[in-house]
Amino acid sequence: MDIENQVKKTLSKIKLSKREKIFIALSGGKDSTVTAYFLKKFGYNIEGFHIDLKIGSYSERCRNAVEELCRRLKITLHVYDMKKEMGSGMCYLRTAIQSKPGKKRLKNCAVCGVIKKWILNKKARELKADKIATGHNLDDEVQTFLMNILKGSPELSRNIGVLTKNVSDKKFIPRIKPLFYVAEKDIKKFSKQKKLPVVYEKCPCAPDSYRIQVRKFTEKLSSEVKINAIKNFEKLFKKIKIKKTKINYCERCGEPARNKICKKCRLME
Ligand code: AMP
Ligand code: ZN
């Protein structure tokens, strides 16, 4: 199946309405750019949301690419400036967190991911979005699943899926992944064919070595095998009873949290 039909099929699974306001989390990379391209092409009501991480010239290139994309697609872009809103760029904030006792072993991407999700949910809600779309692709999802099985708790995989499951709360904006079944190499090829404005370089805050190890293994697998892995995971997951997450509101920031204090506020303390 070609990439366009695959995305169409995935979106029909979610039963997305064209009236819903969808925020696309745009990083400047190929995945979120292609996600925006298709959602616009299919006539969804989309707006772009970019977090300017303020990681030197890399972030400038990302912001320029996102601005260019939103001009081409004629969609509104909201930009969250980390320095203005949080007082420092992502690298500085992350290093400060990792220098605290008990937080030294935290991985770069884990810290950055928690902060990005916190910002996305809060801003999307304030700007009245119904859904958040991210660019997560088949390779990302297979890697996360394997990482959880090999090292982490399999329960962590409850977040894997086209649409966030097990969480329903008025302060939580559901997240969707339209490229869930599309392999990374096909997304790259497509973005080049369409000459979309994309920053192809990787984030300078290197991903953790564990994900790199798993990626080296999954890179060798064919797309069919990766789709099989994800479909088998979905079958298995239906049989496992995972408690619906009870949502609290963080005592410090008021955002949805699984515990009394949300992950972002625990990082910052
Ligand atoms: P990553 O965790 O960096 O692989 O990114 C996963 C997804 O999160 C991307 O496909 C984007 O949808 C979103 N994302 C990552 N970085 C940003 C950013 N700086 N601003 C907005 N969305 C982002
Ligand atoms: Zn909090």
Q: What features would you describe in this structure?
A:
Helices cover 49% and strands 10% of the residues. The protein is globular, with a radius of gyration of 18 Å. It has one domain (3-268): Rossmann fold. The strands form 2 sheets. A 5-stranded parallel β-sheet has the order 3-2-1-4-5, sandwiched between helices. A two-stranded antiparallel ribbon has the order 6-7. With 269 residues, it is an alpha/beta fold. The chain has helices at 3-14, 30-41, 56-73, 82-86, 90-98, 108-126, 138-150, 184-193, 209-219, 223-239, 263-268, and strands spanning 21-25, 45-52, 77-81, 131-133, 175-176, 248-249, 256-257. The termini are far apart. It contains 11 helices and 7 strands. The model has no long low-confidence stretch (mean pLDDT 92). Adenosine monophosphate binds next to helix 2, strand 2 and helix 6.
Task: List its traits.
269 residues; alpha/beta; two-stranded antiparallel ribbon; 11 helices; 49% helix; 10% strand
Outline the fold blueprint.
Elements: H1 3-14, E1 21-25, H2 30-41, E2 45-52, H3 56-73, E3 77-81, H4 82-86, H5 90-98, H6 108-126, E4 131-133, H7 138-150, E5 175-176, H8 184-193, H9 209-219, H10 223-239, E6 248-249, E7 256-257, H11 263-268
Parallel strand pairs: 1-2, 1-4, 2-3, 4-5
Antiparallel strand pairs: 6-7
The site of zinc ion has 8 residues, from α11.
Summarize the structure.
With 269 residues, this protein is an alpha/beta fold. It has helices at residues 3-14, 30-41, 56-73, 82-86, 90-98, 108-126, 138-150, 184-193, 209-219, 223-239, 263-268, and strands spanning 21-25, 45-52, 77-81, 131-133, 175-176, 248-249, 256-257. It has a five-stranded parallel β-sheet with strand order 3-2-1-4-5, sandwiched between helices. Strands 6-7 form a two-stranded antiparallel sheet.
